[in-house]
Amino acid sequence: MDIRTIQLKKTILENNDKDADLLRAQMREEGTFYINVMSSPGSGKTTMLAGTIRLLQKLDGSLRIGVMEADIDSDVDAQTIHRETGVPAVQLHTGGMCHLDADMSRQGLREIGSSDLDIVFLENVGNLVCPAEFDTGAEIDVVILSVPEGDDKPLKYPLMFEEADVVLVTKLDAMPAFDFDEQRFKENLRACNRTAPVFFISARTGDGMEDWCRWLMKTYNEMK
After folding, report:
1. Is there a contact between 125 and 94 (Cβ–Cβ < 8 Å)?
2. Which residues lie below 8 Å from residue 164, measured CB to CB, with a gap of 6+?
């Protein structure tokens, strides 16, 4: 499949939450598990996604997976995902907007052919502010924090971590080089989100990846 770049149109719907609920119901009816991945730039989203897809394919070779990569410009991430995993990938250009909303998600899902896929990942635009404010219609929201960013980010960006259904702490192999306190991070996270499971992972070494993917498969199977 050639990589296509989709120019997204700004939604004119005022009630994004209502639209997101409609999209979520549509995805459930199709049997498509739609996952929104959010983080700051450079946290390792694309590397994590590639590693996750490869492991999911080992756990269940019948899974049909697709990825939507959202950025202001370029198609670097879509090219990387398709090259490293072989799954369908589309690049979504947001026209300068720092997030996706439900209607923009719908446009991307239409292009990637979500009805023919079991799991669709959205790699949202990289920042810890805007994406948390707009419901994309996804079934679950994954928030990534990399070790080099520091353990205080739940205190600085509480809405992002409040919205998380699951939190991944990436670049675990870099822990010795940074002043990142695992227990302090958990305490900071629980101040704004008491229920989201946390997985400490390294896509480079594979540490923690199997536990994360097994949790994801369990959640997917419960949705079906």
Report:
1. yes
2. 141, 142, 143, 193, 196
Summarize pLDDT for 88-147 with one digit per residue, the tens: 999 998 888 888 999 999 999 999 999 999 999 999 999 999 999 999 999 999 999 999
CATH code, 144: 3.40.50.300
Q: Tens of pLDDT along 21-37?
A: 999 999 999 999 999 99
Range of the domain at 102: 4-8+17-223
- Burial category of 43 from C-beta neighbours within 10 Å (exposed 0-12, middle 13-18, buried 19 and up): buried
* Residue 131: φ, ψ to 5°: -60, -30
How much of the chain is helix, strand and coil, in % rounded to 5?
Answer: 45, 20, 35
Cα 106 to Cα 69, 143, 191, 205, 210: the distances in Å are 14, 21, 33, 35, 30
Tally of CA atoms within 13 A in the half-sphere of 161 that contains its CB: 25
* Domain count within the chain: 1
Distances (CA, A) of 219 to 21, 161, 175, 195: 19, 19, 28, 15
Query: How far is residue 182's CA from residue 177's CA, in Å, rounded to a whole number?
Result: 14
Alpha helices by DSSP H, listed for the chain, are 16-30, 45-59, 76-85, 102-112, 153-156, 158-162, 182-190, 209-223
